């Protein structure tokens, strides 16, 4: 398989999880669930994984296409089901690009390539959630 992640219990509701990058991360529950909020929440981490995966694709394409972008961010809003096991059934991703010389058509192409072709995390999310994507351009 080749993707071993070890997640070790540190007592209470806290865990430390290894990562192939060598940067470990901490997972903890919120105070309402017996934790101390000293780490990431597992479900939210999935959304960060989705944004990070797609973000890396887009950053790579911005470089490859030599596009001028001052800044960009990805906002994700997700709906959690009411019943256990709770999962995200609707995920809305908003790509925001900032700059005074944005090539909107090419940036939209970069987002589309990530969303439709390259991002494996996106493909996983599509198995259980309705995913919508919006791209926003902000000129100075």
UniProtKB/TrEMBL annotation:
Pfam families tied to this protein: OsmC
Q: Which InterPro entries match?
A: KH_dom-like_a/b (IPR015946), OsmC/Ohr_fam (IPR003718), OsmC/Ohrsf (IPR036102)
Which domain of life does the protein's organism represent? Bacteria
Record's PANTHER family? PROTEIN YHFA
Could you identify this protein by its name? OsmC family protein
